[in-house]
Amino acid sequence: MLLPSTLRRLLALTNNSKALLPLRTLATVKEETIKEKYDIIIAGGGMVGCTLACALGKNSVMSNLKILLLEGSPNQTYQLKPEYSNRVVALNQNTKSLMNSLKIWRHIEKARLQPVRYMQVWDACSDALISFSSSDILDDDIAYIVENDLLLHAVNTELASTEIENLKIVYGAKISDYQLSKSDNKTATENIVKMSNGDVYACELLIGADGANSAVRKAMGVQYLSWNYDQMGVVATLHLAEETENTTAWQRWLPTGPVALLPLDNSRSSLVWSVWQDEAKRLLKLSDEEFVDAVNDALWKQYPRSKGVEACVSWMSSCLRKAGLPDGAVRQLPPSVRHITAGSRAAFPLGFGHSVRYIAPGVALVGDAAHRVHPLAGQGVNLGFGDVKDLTDLLADAIYTGYEITHHSWLEKYESSRQRHNVPTQIAVDALHRLYTVDLPPIVLARSLGLQLTNALHPLKKMIMSHATT
């Protein structure tokens, strides 16, 4: 479980609105060395950065602003391949609404996506489970599984097909350093972005969308609370033993971490398996046949169980039945895996990160630059897209009411609105990770009874899903 001291520290740092360290700056940049000035510069053009550029560029209130997107990767031609990529995201309804408003979703639908209409999560150390169905909890699908590179291609396609005259994109951009404004008054020095090729840009508002190792965040000098989980997420594209209407997301909590199958089409699913680092290295070295056996074991293997825990879980099920509530006895059986796509196995490190401040004078952070979470709940990229929507709306409101885009009150509104949503989500996800990587009988009992009760109480499940989709 999340240690109380860690929780207190995170909340204290988050609530400390003045917790800023001195800004790191370059030597003064002379006016004549600046190549071009912009109102907004976005550093980082991944899924979140590119979507933010599209949202700002399409907003009619900001049509007179000059916007620059600096993307470190080259502008590559995308080709939809028959086989799925091994890196996917689960997009919630709010993200879909954002993508629809920007006309990006049509490009995703034209290519491919898979809806999630049912979700089942269960404990390997007991019979406790929780299930979610789109038919009785939401008015629409629970989520949509989309490949990372396809999503980025859809955003770039909309950027290229739309006449956004106030947006410029520089691909292959390598940023060497920043000089940040020290004040938010009218005489403040502009933010300076220095490129490795010698070009220098200036802007009123600098937005860091440059990932978990954000150079913009480091230049801000803000406190960053982070830790590694000593785990890796093993990913692969799996071919199922039987072809079905594959719209279910499966997640089983093993003592080593969760193993999840996310639907891709009627015969394929994407694997996300959280394991300790040594185990991840072992899994990557297995033959394809041995790896398939390991995945099937993770989904089906019977783990040792405590008789005391079994008795209490059975008693709770009986009480729920007598009360006319779901007892979790009705469950679907997970699929078996036949083989994996050759070369689709990979692993990435898992960690937690939270920037105490999302803003500084003339600077704002979005996406992984501001927050990083364990992938067990599929919330990481959705939190980033939530940042995009709120920041775009608040900047537009600031301009509409006659304020500068760097006005501190509007940036503080962005920080407050996002931290009120992001921090509880991060704490909950971290707590779940810690709770389910312990197999002590008292802990197993507590989480099993909690899971049973949550599954039985429909309003509580609906509240959880409502938070997860906003």
From TrEMBL:
Keywords: FAD, Flavoprotein, Membrane, Mitochondrion, Mitochondrion inner membrane, Monooxygenase, Oxidoreductase, Ubiquinone biosynthesis. It is a peripheral membrane protein. Its EC number is 1.14.15.45, 1.14.15.46. Residues 38-297, 361-421 form the FAD-binding domain. Its main location: mitochondrion. It catalyses: a 4-hydroxy-3-(all-trans-polyprenyl)benzoate + 2 reduced [2Fe-2S]-[ferredoxin] + O2 + 2 H(+) = a 3,4-dihydroxy-5-(all-trans-polyprenyl)benzoate + 2 oxidized [2Fe-2S]-[ferredoxin] + H2O; a 2-methoxy-6-(all-trans-polyprenyl)phenol + 2 reduced [2Fe-2S]-[ferredoxin] + O2 + 2 H(+) = a 2-methoxy-6-(all-trans-polyprenyl)benzene-1,4-diol + 2 oxidized [2Fe-2S]-[ferredoxin] + H2O. Pfam families: FAD_binding_3. Its cofactor is FAD. The keyword Membrane applies. InterPro entries: FAD-bd, FAD/NAD-bd_sf, Ubi_Hdrlase_CS, UbiH/COQ6, UbiH/COQ6_monooxygenase, UbQ_mOase_COQ6. Belongs to the UbiH/COQ6 family. Component of a multi-subunit COQ enzyme complex. NCBIfam families: COQ6, Ubi-OHases. PANTHER family: UBIQUINONE BIOSYNTHESIS MONOOXYGENASE COQ6, MITOCHONDRIAL. This is Ubiquinone biosynthesis monooxygenase COQ6, mitochondrial. It comes from Chilo suppressalis (Asiatic rice borer moth). The lineage of its organism: Eukaryota, Metazoa, Ecdysozoa, Arthropoda, Hexapoda.
